[in-house]
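User: Here's a structure from my thesis project, written as C-alpha cells. My advisor, Dr. K., wants to see whether a designed sequence matches the one we expressed. Can you design one independently, without my sequence as a hint?
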C-alpha cells in the first residue's frame, strides 16, 4: 500500500525511441512485457513516490504508456533541442525539473528490469534522513567489485601482483551502475546541473539486481536471471 509523505518524491524515467544497438529496445518484449514496464511497475509500488515522469521523444512509447498505465504516470514530450544520441542525461533531467515541484527526485533507467522497489525505497528513506541531517546531498547506486584490476598498460591498480592475496581480501572498489540516482533541485543546481551532487552517498545493490541491458545478448542473460529469481 502506498501513502503520502511529507516529502514529495518524484521518479524520472527518461526513454528515447531510438536505440543504436537494440532497435526499439524499450518496447522490446522482456518476459512477456515491453522492457520498460518492469521498472515502471516497480516504481509504482513505492511507499514514497507520488508520481512517475516519463520524458520521451517516441510517439510509440507515449501511446503504450497511455494505454497501459494510470494517471500517476506523467508524460513529458521531449523538446527538439534535447533529442539525440549525444544529449547529456543531465540536460533531460533539467528539463523535467523545470516543469515539476518535487522535493526529492529519483532517476532510473528502463534497462534495469531486475531493479527492485525494495532497494529504491530503502535509498529514498536514506535520502530523506540525510536531507534532514545535511550530511549528504545525493545518492547513487553502486556495485561492489573485489577483483584484480589493471590499467591499459597492464599496471596493477588495486593490488600488489607480488603478494597475490585472496580477491575477497582486496579493498573493494565501487562501480557506478546507473540503476538509480537520488537528488534534490538544490543539489542538482549546486553541482552544475548534475544528478550526482557535491557530497554524494554511495548505495550498494546486488550485482544481479544491477544488470543493465545494453546489447542484444544482455536480453538473454537478464531474462534467464529474471525467470530464476522471480
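Assistant: Designed independently from the structure alone:
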Amino acid at each position: 500500500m502506498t501513502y503520502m509523505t511529507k516529502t514529495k518524491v518524484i521518479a524520472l524515467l527518461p526513454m528515447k525511441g531510438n536505440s543504436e544497438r537494440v532497435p526499439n529496445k524499450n518496447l522490446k518484449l522482456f518476459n512477456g512485457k515491453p522492457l520498460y514496464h518492469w521498472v515502471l511497475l516497480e516504481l509504482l509500488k513505492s511507499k514514497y513516490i507520488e508520481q512517475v515522469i516519463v520524458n520521451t521523444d517516441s510517439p510509440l512509447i507515449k501511446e503504450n504508456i497511455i494505454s497501459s498505465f494510470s494517471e500517476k504516470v506523467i508524460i513529458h514530450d521531449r523538446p527538439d533541442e534535447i533529442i539525440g544520441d549525444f544529449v547529456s542525461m543531465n540536460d533531460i533531467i533539467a528539463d523535467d525539473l523545470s516543469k515539476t515541484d518535487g522535493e526529492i527526485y529519483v532517476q532510473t533507467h528502463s534497462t534495469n528490469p531486475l531493479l527492485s522497489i525494495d532497494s529504491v525505497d530503502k535509498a529514498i528513506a536514506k535520502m530523506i534522513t540525510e536531507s534532514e541531517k545535511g550530511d549528504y546531498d545525493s545518492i547513487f547506486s553502486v556495485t561492489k567489485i573485489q577483483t584484480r584490476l589493471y590499467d591499459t598498460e597492464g599496471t596493477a591498480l588495486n593490488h600488489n601482483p607480488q603478494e597475490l592475496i585472496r580477491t575477497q581480501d582486496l579493498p573493494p572498489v565501487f562501480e557506478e551502475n546507473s540503476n538509480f540516482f537520488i537528488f534534490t533541485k538544490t543539489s542538482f543546481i549546486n553541482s552544475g546541473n548534475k544528478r550526482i551532487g557535491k557530497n554524494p552517498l554511495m548505495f550498494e545493490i546486488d550485482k544481479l539486481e544491477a544488470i543493465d541491458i545494453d546489447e542484444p545478448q544482455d536480453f538473454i542473460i537478464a531474462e534467464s536471471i529474471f525467470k530464476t529469481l522471480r
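When you compare it with your expressed construct, this may help: DSSP finds six helices and nine strands in the chain.
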